[in-house]
Amino acid sequence: xxxxxxxxxxxxxxxxxxxxxxxxxxxxxxxxLVPMLAGKCGLDQRKAFATSVAVIAPxxxxxxxxxxxxxxxxxxLALPYLAGGLIGxxxxxxxxxxxxxxxxxxxxxxxxxxxxxRALL
Length: 121
Prior knowledge:
Layout: H1 2-25, H2 29-38, H3 45-69, H4 75-96, H5 101-120
């Protein structure tokens, strides 16, 4: 019972961290969520990546709604990115199962590293 409560607490903390990152930066919550799901919450890497997508989708929708409501979003500008993102999501979802976890982890680490370097420059 105590372990279940502790695990639920970690899941809630992971979700809160993802929501906070998404709210601040308009995205990127998965970069906070995946390591917590895999580390503290005990999910295997594949489940952590997939669960992150399921959690991040509604968080992104919420963040987008808030940005739109406050007048900080150009929907016309976003449409081409949305079209490309849908295609990329379909391709990525199909290729995902065929990739080794070692390659997925490295690709994720490179993405985080790239984002960090871009943020600093």
